[in-house]
Amino acid sequence: MNTHVYPIKVAKLFFKNYCYLVVDIDTHDAVLIDPAWEMDKIEQYLAQSEANLKAVLLTHHHPDHINLADAFAKKYQIPVMMSQIEIEHYAFNCTNLTPIATPDLFHIGGLDIVPLFTPGHTKGAISFWIENALFPGDTLFIEGCGMCYGKGSDAGELFDSLSYLQTILPINTKIYPGHSYGKEPGEQFEYLLEANIYLQFKDRQQFIEFRMRKAQHGLLDFK
Fold this sequence. Notes:
Elements: E1 3-12, E2 15-24, E3 29-33, H1 39-49, E4 52-57, H2 63-66, H3 69-76, E5 80-83, H4 84-90, E6 97-100, E7 106-108, E8 111-117, E9 126-130, E10 133-137, H5 155-168, E11 174-177, E12 187-188, H6 189-195, H7 204-211
Parallel strand pairs: 3-4, 4-5, 5-6, 10-11
Antiparallel strand pairs: 1-2, 2-3, 7-8, 8-9, 9-10, 11-12
Helix pairs in contact: 5-7
């Protein structure tokens, strides 16, 4: 492995989520994924890792994933990258915003990044595949998957996205989601294939009915 992943747990009020600093071990080039809430804490990781921050990557537009994107873009004069569909559908804007329009591999410093379009939680949700690590935001958790409520959300599209991930990800891919319901980030995909109930569905309509069932509990019970 040529990269090191730093999971950074951040919080504000009832929000508890993870952002990630991904650093190339050789060059110290780095990207920051979904920064929110605690800038001082995140900058401590930047300093300790001697990271040369090159870009902010955003999986989707929800506040707990984009809260500090503009602040980092301004302070470090770096691009903020988000899927073009997400930008246009939600009229998202921030400093140095750079749309991702294709699923082609791109390079940031010494890092090779594959953007995977994984809609469902939001219209233009995107997952970032960097070496043997996947950063799916709220598309996929260790224990479940994202909610499908609000503008642009679609449980059928989420089923398609999860099915797509199952066709392309090696089982040893480490999963670093936006939230934890108990398990620490970094579990291998092989574990999710066995333990995550949302990856057991083969029928699209059955998945939709289960994902959208009423009286679900613990949806915001983040750890």
